[in-house]
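Let's inspect a concrete specimen:
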Amino acid sequence: MAKSITIKDIAREAGVSIALVSFVMNNRTEANGKQKYRVSSTTRDRILEVARRYNYQPSSAARMLRQGRTRVIGVILSDLSNIFYGIIARELENQAALHGYTVLFGSSDEDPRKFDLLLRSFIEKDVEGFIVVPCEGSRSSLEYLIRSGRPFVVIDRYHPDYRLPTVLTDNADAMRQAVDYLRSQGARSIEMVSYAMRISSMGDRETAFREILGADAHIYHLPFNLKASDASAVADEVIRKGTDALIMSSNVPSVAVLQQLFRRGVRIQKDIKVVSFDYSNAYAFFDPPIPYILQPLPQITEAAAAYLFRLIEAHSNGESPEAAKKIVFKSKLIV
């Protein structure tokens, strides 16, 4: 088996110093964008020709070790199988690539123990920063993350007890859009289907719903790992009460309840009008399609990534981080 080619071999063949080969292969520049050392095009071409002839590949791991950087970020979302978080993951991967980073992904499945395990595992892998969706019961893990000194940004949710770098949407405004639309369609008895989890996104939507509906506000709570029987119970109660409109707090419980209503002969958008938070492919199979609250995920993700990369660069340069802020985007009702 042929031995690996090193920059020492390239330097000897090209008749130059090892430092010069390292400079040419790593394209080293100063902070102002100018080359640190001046190299003639003839010398540069000779070095590159030798490297090509020997099929030399610089070691990115060694380069990052010299720089004291890994250029890896950790991303912990709720559920990567959900199209909502799948879009976020894809957009984050694109943003990371544009900035020269790679990403480690994980799903917490709304389990604080799994969230903590992923967090500690990624820190052991020396990631430079995090983008996280904190789940219910993850307070101690967030405190550990804060103590670790790793830059991080919270996305989609916020923690009421801490002022953290956060990017999310205005859930109260989105709820007002949903209620106003249903009322404009003649709905008189509007109810809500939500998760039983105590997380900020669900909490803000429920609070806004109660403020708008007042004493008439009724909310069904489903577990995160819901079963068909959970959705069936809601469907039966909605039919029994004669509810004529539902607001679904998320796409997964939305599809589960809609399926049960459809099986019972309910004409969706005729007998019961529905608006859901977040998109699902299943909405297009109804006639008319299910209106939904569209969160601007590309903009949210781009803002979160840019925020994190600024924090990482400041941290790596020994600079003081910018004050934590909350970046809020507006959602749009898609009919």
Summary: The radius of gyration is 26 Å. The chain has three domains: 7-58, 70-169+298-330, 171-294. The chain has a mean pLDDT of 91. The longest helix spans residues 297-316.
